[in-house]
Amino acid sequence: MTLTPEQQAEIAEARATSRSTLRATSEGMEKHLYTAHEVLDHGLVRVIDYMGDDAAITQAARVSYGRGTKAVQNDEGLIRYLMRHWHSTPFEMCEVKFHVKLPVFVARQWIRHRTANVNEYSARYSILDREFYIPAPEHLAAQSTVNNQGRGELLEGEEAARVLDILRDDAMRSYDHYEDMLSQEGQKGLARELARMNLPANVYTQWYWKVDLHNLFHFLRLRADAHAQYEIRAYAETMCGIVRDWVPLAYGAFEDYRLGGVTLSGKAIEVLKRRLKGESVTQENSGMSKGEWREFEGVWR
């Protein structure tokens, strides 16, 4: 991971400055403020600011639902109730702002989550660093034969070495040409907003990403899942650790009901009922497609 001297100085200054406040703070989140967590080969995630804690969730719920929450005896029970019954608004009372450094191809996948505020480093105004994501050998894999979006068997030996050489050579060559086009030595040089088009999708970019807890949980449910692409999952797993420290009660409920839970279709529930009665149910007589059946069976293995 590479931080610029300016970023390192900013982090050092921010961590050295103590501020008194009347607003609620999270002891767990305070230790993450401004700390850069390494991700992939040159990436990072760090918390710039946050608002709220577990108490903010229950406070909002009790305002919204009034006497309807009286039967829930404690904050943890209330939070678990809210998560279990998909009450999203109270979780929107907490927000966090991340600084993320990530490869462009990961950013383009990430930006599909349109429920956050994003401000990205602009290659129209600044020159991108010579930093590229090159996968570790254990993450080089062939195309999956059963999942058009996934990876299959690992590449090994000469094949893996050949692919890594191509990735490095192409990235460096593209950046060399990028610099050449920008050159001001005896020539006008191409505008930065045009020269950037030549850069590969594994070059690193940076952004500030601000999101409320409800939508962050939605992001983490999809991207921390074992089926998510490894590169974005690496960021999601790092963020899971941060959120666990920030709102431990809410994260515990999220981990139980979302990360560790499953949603079953009406057909799947019917199959379970039939099996509990002792009936032998197969894909052919389940009413499910082959894909549905494969996913259903995968839950129980």
TrEMBL record:
<dbReference type="GO" id="GO:0032259">
    <property type="term" value="P:methylation"/>
</dbReference>
<dbReference type="GO" id="GO:0070402">
    <property type="term" value="F:NADPH binding"/>
</dbReference>
<feature type="active site" description="Involved in ionization of N3 of dUMP, leading to its activation">
    <location>
        <position position="223"/>
    </location>
</feature>
<feature type="binding site">
    <location>
        <begin position="212"/>
        <end position="214"/>
    </location>
    <ligand>
        <name>FAD</name>
    </ligand>
</feature>
<dbReference type="InterPro" id="IPR036098">
    <property type="entry name" value="Thymidylate_synthase_ThyX_sf"/>
</dbReference>
<dbReference type="InterPro" id="IPR003669">
    <property type="entry name" value="Thymidylate_synthase_ThyX"/>
</dbReference>
<protein>
    <recommendedName>
        <fullName>Flavin-dependent thymidylate synthase</fullName>
        <ecNumber>2.1.1.148</ecNumber>
    </recommendedName>
</protein>
<keyword id="KW-0545">Nucleotide biosynthesis</keyword>
<keyword id="KW-0521">NADP</keyword>
<comment type="subunit">
    <text>Homotetramer.</text>
</comment>
<feature type="region of interest" description="Disordered">
    <location>
        <begin position="1"/>
        <end position="22"/>
    </location>
</feature>
<feature type="binding site" description="in other chain">
    <location>
        <begin position="120"/>
        <end position="124"/>
    </location>
    <ligand>
        <name>dUMP</name>
    </ligand>
</feature>
<comment type="similarity">
    <text>Belongs to the thymidylate synthase ThyX family.</text>
</comment>
<keyword id="KW-0274">FAD</keyword>
<dbReference type="GO" id="GO:0050660">
    <property type="term" value="F:flavin adenine dinucleotide binding"/>
</dbReference>
<comment type="function">
    <text>Catalyzes the reductive methylation of 2'-deoxyuridine-5'-monophosphate (dUMP) to 2'-deoxythymidine-5'-monophosphate (dTMP) while utilizing 5,10-methylenetetrahydrofolate (mTHF) as the methyl donor, and NADPH and FADH(2) as the reductant.</text>
</comment>
<feature type="binding site">
    <location>
        <position position="223"/>
    </location>
    <ligand>
        <name>dUMP</name>
    </ligand>
</feature>
<feature type="binding site">
    <location>
        <position position="218"/>
    </location>
    <ligand>
        <name>FAD</name>
    </ligand>
</feature>
<comment type="pathway">
    <text>Pyrimidine metabolism; dTTP biosynthesis.</text>
</comment>
<feature type="binding site">
    <location>
        <position position="89"/>
    </location>
    <ligand>
        <name>FAD</name>
    </ligand>
</feature>
<dbReference type="GO" id="GO:0006231">
    <property type="term" value="P:dTMP biosynthetic process"/>
</dbReference>
<dbReference type="GO" id="GO:0006235">
    <property type="term" value="P:dTTP biosynthetic process"/>
</dbReference>
<feature type="binding site" description="in other chain">
    <location>
        <position position="196"/>
    </location>
    <ligand>
        <name>dUMP</name>
    </ligand>
</feature>
<feature type="binding site">
    <location>
        <begin position="112"/>
        <end position="114"/>
    </location>
    <ligand>
        <name>FAD</name>
    </ligand>
</feature>
<dbReference type="GO" id="GO:0004799">
    <property type="term" value="F:thymidylate synthase activity"/>
</dbReference>
<dbReference type="GO" id="GO:0050797">
    <property type="term" value="F:thymidylate synthase (FAD) activity"/>
</dbReference>
<keyword id="KW-0489">Methyltransferase</keyword>
<keyword id="KW-0285">Flavoprotein</keyword>
<feature type="binding site">
    <location>
        <position position="120"/>
    </location>
    <ligand>
        <name>FAD</name>
    </ligand>
</feature>
<keyword id="KW-0808">Transferase</keyword>
<dbReference type="Pfam" id="PF02511">
    <property type="entry name" value="Thy1"/>
</dbReference>
<feature type="binding site">
    <location>
        <begin position="109"/>
        <end position="112"/>
    </location>
    <ligand>
        <name>dUMP</name>
    </ligand>
</feature>
